Amino acid sequence: MAQDRPTASELLTAIADFLREEVTPALDRADPRLGFQMRVAVNSLAILEREGRLGPAADAREHERLVALLGHNGTLEELNSDLAHQIRTGQRDERDAALMSHLDATTADKIAIANPKWR
What is the full DSSP assignment across 7-71? Predict the structure, then answer.
């Protein structure tokens, strides 16, 4: 059972901050290649933190949009598979405004997790 504080998000942030502020500069001086790899690891921790904090709500929004778009319920994986099939078989394409709106919203949610500075 999770403790109240620190939360998983707070722990990941604290670890990333420590590695970014204390370890990375030391590694840059000792071995720039390891410093680069540490920056990649720190960025990965930040993605994990955002995934834990933002992912469930993003998944719920995606699920809700897919149900409305496809007209039936299912798991997120099943609904995405159904949508992919419809796109592959030409049942849906870029002329479908509802599809494009869904894809835009889903992409925005994924970018907010993977690289929030992008937009």
Answer: -HHHHHHHHHHHIIIIIHHHHHHH-HHHHHHHHHHHHHHHHHHHHHHHHHHHHHHHHHHHHHHHS
